[in-house]
Design a protein that fits this description.
This protein is mostly helical and 54 residues long. It has helices spanning 11-30, 34-53.
Length: 54
């Protein structure tokens, strides 16, 4: 039906995405205040949700 087939990430794409996640977590970890840490973590969560929705 329509020939639609979902494609996954290549290993290289996944590694690149994972590096972005690691940088985001490290940035949150280095934040000066709890508010900054919370803000950075919220940004990461937003990005994850957007990635899941496509």
């Amino acid at each position: 039906m329509g020939g639609y087939e979902e494609m996954g990430m290549t290993d290289l794409q996944f590694k690149s995405w994972l590096k972005q996640v690691i940088r985001g977590v490290e940035a949150a970890k280095k934040a000066a205040t709890k508010e900054e840490t919370d803000e950075k973590l919220e940004e990461l969560l937003k990005d994850f949700r957007e990635d899941l929705q496509g």
